[in-house]
Amino acid sequence: MAFLNINRVTKGFGQGGRRTCVLRDINLNIERGEFVAIVGFSGSGKTTLINLIAGLTRPDAGVIRLNDLDVSGPGPDRGVVFQNYALLPWLTVYENIALAADNLFPNWSREKRRQHVERHLALVNLAAARDKLPHQLSGGMRQRVSVARALAMDPQILLLDEPLSALDALTRATLQDEIERIWEADQKTVVMITNDVDEGLLLADRIIPMTPGPEATLGPEIAVTLPRPRNRKALNHDPEFKRLRAAVAGWLLDAAAAKRRATPHRTLVLPALVAAGLGQSATPREAVIS
Amino acid sequence: MKISDRLISLFQTIGLTPLMPVVRLCVGEDPREQLAQLGRMIGLPLLGFGLFLVAWAVTAANVKTSIGTVPGPVQVWQQAVGLVREHQAERQREREFYARQIELKARYEKAFPGKVWQPRRYSGAPTYLDQIETSLETVFAGFVLASLIAVPVGILCGLSRNFYNAVNPFVQIFRPVSPLAWLPIVMIMVSALYTPKNPWLAKSFVSSAITVALCSLWPTLINTAIGVGAIDSDHINVARVLRLPWGVRLRKIVLPTALPYIFTGLRLSLGVGWMVLIAAEMLAQNPGLGKFVWDMFQNGSSQTLALIMVAVFTIGIIGFALDRLMLVLQQLVSYDRAAMR
Fold first, then answer.
1. Contact flag B242-A90 (C-beta cutoff 8 Å)
2. pLDDT beneath 50, residues of chain A
3. Which residues of chain B neighbour A104 with C-beta distances below 8 Å?
4. pLDDT per residue as tens digits for the range B10-69
5. What is the pLDDT of residues A267-287, one digit of tens each?
6. Who among A76, A88, A103 is closest to B235 (CB)?
7. Looking at per-residue confidence, does B116 or B312 come out higher?
8. Do B76 and B56 contact (CB within 8 A), yes or no?
């Protein structure tokens, strides 16, 4: 049995006639210690998928099982790193991480909990910023605190909801390397949602594209067999990397085009305009808008 | 951090922003700019105030009422000084009275050994400064009572949609009611229910304080409810993932989010309460500034208008000071100073 098993999961929002189905028939199996990236367009329901795995919402149909137990609600065994960091602005960096440690390990001694928090601070290279408030930190630093807090929960599976979307490209690159380094340290099972194909190829063992919404579903799984550690500069010239990128991006773009073709469109009749003096006959033409 | 930086940051927090250029001038930072800022922050208001005084003096001398000419700034100032002197004279008389008491007590007990001298209380009328003190005590009593009711109810409203729907009609209906409408009801109820043998608080004090509370609890209640409702859904999700117990959620997420809103509400409530107080005191005859204004009006002497104007300025200045105090508290409580202004 796979470590994380998502079986025929469907989720929709809204009431009665206005109900939109966001995710349809999602199937996914993840083994322990794998790093899986799900790549998709904005608005395709990726955050909904993370919320379902985390237990923050319930699916309409289908089953999600972690370690052979049904997922029925949120819990610290599924650590979530939110897109907007979700740090408590009135607590310092240390206190934000300690929130996890103090509430999840009440039986530990104070010293043990302190060391646990310090270890995770060092893991994300933020020991110097431990007494700062979130509004005094840059976006990259805030995301690192968020990652440290999620890891301090000692989760069985780490869920990253577009963790780097809110950052500029250069900070994003730095943090991608950080995430890889942190993951190498204890090889947790990770499900990462992203909209960047390159990011998925750099970090993941498997990359799964997602069709655009509504009624999104997962596409074919593509194994990323590039050797670790992955050097960003060297990969730019790697033929396997280029092939994988072309495959994933191609599939996504084809899926988007197919979606556009499939959606209903209107036909407008354009007025018959003739350039004066060119002597062309005036026939109304049709334009198709999708 | 340098001392000058600390002082500047302190003055900004307290709200004494005109002192910031003064500090910078002392340090020698860009004197021209600092003098210009001082001109804007202190010079312009002073100029405006000066023009107002001149206009007042000129128009006042030309208006004649049934009690005499309308007083100008000079007469009002003289009356204010007079009130302070009166207060000091009264205090002096009180000290002399109690000193005489001690002396009389000694003579009595020497003449009639075995009997005990019954002490007499000084029975002078409350002075202007005493009345200011009474007003402040009343408004704080009413404000504290209002906050003790409004904050918990507001938190419940914010946390539970059902509770909010149940309470909302009352809030909307009772909020616009004037204190002058509440006061008769409050006074009748207090007369009926507040009948202790040795009343520590006068009935007029209790009536005024309750009226102030009734009128000033609405801003705090509404703002608290909004603050509790404004909790970020991401923070709630963090609480759910960590499975935080109810008490920790309240302390670490609900209250810190709501605290800036609560203090905004408290600040508004204090402002409303101070305004309501004067009207309540006038009718309930609580010996404070409201009663002072009413007495002066009933008096109809030649100094009445000037004295009432002194009261107007006093009320305004105290109201401003109270608002400033609440602003400072609000700043201290806010974790992101820039968001609070």
1. no
2. none
3. 242-243
4. 777 777 777 788 888 777 778 888 888 888 888 888 999 999 999 988 888 888 877 778
5. 788 888 777 776 666 666 677
6. A88
7. B312
8. no
What domains are defined for chain A? 4-77+155-265 (3.40.50.300)
- Domain B128-339, CATH among 3.40.50.2000, 1.10.10.60, 1.10.3720.10, 3.40.50.1100: 1.10.3720.10
- For A270, counting Cβ atoms within 10 Å of its Cβ (0-12 exposed, 13-18 middle, 19+ buried), the class is exposed
- Tell me how far apart the alpha carbons of residues A217 and A209 are, in angstroms, rounded to a whole number: 9
- What is the token pair recorded at B325? 């105090």
Identify all chain B residues contacting A76, using CB atoms and an 8 Å cutoff: 241-243
Q: What is the DSSP letter of B59?
A: H
Q: Shortest CB distance from A56 goes to which of B240, B242, B253? A: B240
From A76's Cα to the closest Cα of chain B, the distance in A is 5
**Structure tokens belonging to residue A210:** 């997602």
Minimum CA–CA partner of A136 in chain B: B336
- Chain A CB within 8 Å of residue B236 CB: no
Closest CB to A56 among B232, B237, B335: B237
pLDDT of residue B198: 77
Residue B81 has pLDDT above 90, yes or no: yes
- On whether ipTM exceeds 0.95, the answer is no
pLDDT, tens digit, for every residue of B180-238? 899 999 999 999 988 887 778 888 999 999 999 999 999 999 999 999 998 888 999 99
pLDDT score at A282: 60
Q: Please answer whether residues A143 and A175 qualify as being in contact, where contact means their C-beta atoms are separated by less than 8 angstroms.
A: yes
8 Å CB contact of A86 and B234: yes
CA-nearest residue to A56 within chain B is B237
pLDDT at B338 over 60: no
| A36 burial type by CB count under 10 A (0-12 exposed, 13-18 middle, 19+ buried) | buried
Query: What would the two tokens of residue B76 be?
Result: 């009002």
**A189-194/A286-289 β-pairing:** unpaired
Residues of A in Cβ contact (< 8 Å) with B232 = 86
Q: Which of B237, B240, B335 sits opposite A133 (nearest CB)?
A: B335
Tokens 């005590």: give the residue. Answer: B137
Question: Is residue A76 within 8 Å of A106, Cβ to Cβ?
Answer: no
**Nearest residue on chain B to A87, judged by CA atoms?**
B235
A178 touches A184 (CB < 8 A): no
The pLDDT value recorded for residue A288 is: 67
Phi, psi (5° rounding) for residue B243? 50, 50
Question: Burial level of B123, CB count in 10 A (0-12/13-18/19+)?
Answer: exposed
A103 touches chain B (CB under 8 A): yes
Q: What value does the mean pLDDT take over residues B277-285?
A: 91
pLDDT of residue A279: 62
The one-letter amino acid at A28: L
Note whether B245 contacts A: Cβ–Cβ < 8 A: yes
The full set of domain ranges for chain B reads 3-62, 128-339
Given this model, what pLDDT does residue B337 score? 42
